[in-house]
Amino acid sequence: MNRGQILHEMGLSPIWELRELRKSQELREVSGKAPPVAMLSVAAAPDRPTVAGTAQVARMGWDELAATVAACRACGLCEQRKQAVLGVGDKSAGWLFVGEGPGAEEDARGEPFVGPAGQLLDAMLAAIGLARGQDVYIANAVKCRPPSNRAPEAGEMAACKPYLERQIALVRPKIVVLLGRAAVHAVLGKDDTLTSLRGKVFEYRDGGRNIPVIATYHPAYLLRTLPDKAKAWEDLCRARALMRAAKQTAAGELAN
Ligand code: URA
Predict the structure, then answer these.
(1) Residue of the nearest CA to atom 6 in ligand 1?
(2) What is the DSSP string of the chain?
C-alpha cells in the first residue's frame, strides 16, 4: 500500500500538496535526478513568478505590478476569481481610498467599487467635490473576490499587503481614507471597532513620509445602516480639512 492509500484508509485524504513540490517530484521520478532550481517555481503566467517576493514588489512600476497581481496565486482567493482587481483612478492622486475587496460586479468588470456600494462611494466623493479618477485613486485590501462576499481573512490581507503598499508608494497620496475594518486591518494592522477608530488621525509611514490616515464606514455598511451616513459625512469633512491643511503646508514649503 502506498502513502496515499494508507491515508485514504485512515480517512485523511485527499492529500493537498504544493503544486510546485508535486511537479518537482514528478520530474524526479521521471528523470531520477533532482530538478534544476528554476523548475521549482511553476509560474501562473510563463514569464512571471507565482508569488513575487515583497522586496521584488516594492521595486515594481505600475505595469509590472498590474501583471504580477493579475497572475498572483499567493492565497486561495485566486482559485475562484474571474480576474484580480488592482485599483482605479489617478495614479498620482492626492486622495487614496481603500476598501475591502472586490465583489461580484468588480470581479466581472475588473474595477473596484462599481456595484451599489460603488455608487454610494461616488456620491460620497461628489459630496466633497471629488470624482473617481480625478485626484482620487481607489484600491482594496485584497485584489481578488472573497467567495460569497465574505470579509477577507487576515492571511489573505497579509498576502496582498505588498501590492497595497506598492500602490501607496507609487501614488504618493496626501491622505488615505480607509473604508471599513478590513482596510483598517490591512493598512494600520489594527482590529479595533470602527466606532473606536473614527475621529482619530493615524499615520502611515511610506519611506520618509508620514501620510495622514482616517477611517470611516464602508459604503456597503452605510447602505444597510442609513443613520450612520451622517457620521461618514463628518469623517469626510474631517478628511477634506486635513487635505486642505496638507496642501497649505506644501504651498508654504514651496514659497520658502
Ligand atoms: N466593496 C469593496 O470593499 N471594494 C470593492 O471594490 C467593492 C465593494
Answers:
(1) 112
(2) --HHHHHHHTT-PSPP--HHHHHHHHHHHHHSSPPPGGGGS--SBTTB-SS--HHHHTT--HHHHHHHHHT--SSGGGGT-SS---EEE-TT-SEEEEES---HHHHHHTSSS-SHHHHHHHHHHHHTT-BTTBSEEEEES-SSPPGGGPPPPHHHHHHHHHHHHHHHHHH--SEEEEESHHHHHHHH-----HHHHTT--EEEEETTEEEEEEEE--HHHHHH-GGGHHHHHHHHHHHHHHHHHHHHHHHHHHH-
